[in-house]
Amino acid sequence: MINRMLHAGMLALKKGGIWNAG
């Protein structure tokens, strides 16, 4: 559940940096 969100967030951070963080 939350594991997936954390994983997706990490991938997004590596892909676009911090465009989906805020």
Polypeptide structure, described:
The structure is a single chain. It contains 1 helix and no strands. It starts with a helix and ends in a 6-residue tail after the last helix. Helix content is 68%, strand content 0%. The protein is elongated. The longest helix is centred in the middle third of the chain and has 15 residues, at 2-16. The chain has 22 residues and is mostly helical.
Helicity range of the residues?
55-70%
Biggest β-sheet strands, sense, barrel: none
* Arithmetic mean of pLDDT: 73
How many helices in DSSP terms? 1
Q: What's the number of extended β-strand segments? A: 0
Q: Given the helix and strand composition, which structural class is it?
A: mainly alpha
Global morphology: elongated
Distance between the termini: 21 Å
Unreliable spans are none
Rg to the nearest angstrom?
A: 8 Å
Strand content: under 5%
Compressed to H and E, one letter per element, the order equals H
Give a brief outline of the structure.
The chain has 22 residues and is mainly α. It contains one helix and no strands.
Write the layout of secondary structure elements.
Elements: H1 2-16
Keywords summarizing the entry:
single chain; 22 residues
